[in-house]
Specification:
mainly alpha, 5 helices
């Protein structure tokens, strides 16, 4: 069972790598540049726009009339979005003042450091220890958590529009 899951995760990871390569070729970027521009900059920009749209909807509801419920919704919405702002500050401080190759290398090292906390059993002899964990952490951060945050923002915005 572990091997089937391993193959599925591997396929998803390598499909993402191919997408980055294709986008890089499309825009005249290297693979490293595509990863940095898309994963570190574009994804965060989209996430911030998504978060700001939730705040906008909450503020718009407040303009329809101030109620205790709407005030609570606005406060909770702002508090919910604080981690996104902090993430942006972290990303800018960590990767913002360097060229793409350096940012890519540091991000790769950061993901490897996070992956040391995982110990995923595999009997695949051609994968070195730590590689599997690296790309699982990569997928969790840049695919799963990213899509989950966008979906959550969409769901919150929809809920505010209907019920606040």
């Amino acid at each position: 069972m572990t091997n089937i899951l391993f193959y599925i995760v591997s396929l998803i990871f390598f499909a993402c790598c191919e997408i980055m390569s294709l986008l890089g070729k499309l825009f005249g970027w290297t693979y490293n540049e595509a990863c940095v521009y898309i994963n570190l900059y574009l994804q965060y920009a989209v996430l911030m726009l998504s978060a700001l749209s939730v705040i906008y909807v909450a503020v718009k509801k407040m303009r329809q009339g101030i109620t205790t419920r709407r005030q609570a919704v606005l406060i909770l919405t702002v508090l919910y979005n604080v981690p996104f702002v902090l993430l942006g500050i972290f990303l800018f401080n960590r990767y913002g003042n360097m060229d793409c190759d350096t940012a890519f290398a540091i991000c790769f090292d950061d993901l490897n450091a996070l992956s040391t906390h995982l110990d995923i059993p595999t009997n695949m002899p051609y994968y070195k220890k730590g590689w599997t964990e690296y790309y699982i952490v990569n997928l969790i951060i840049f695919v799963v958590l990213y899509l989950l945050a966008l979906f959550t923002n969409w769901l919150i915005k929809r809920t505010i529009k209907k019920h606040a």
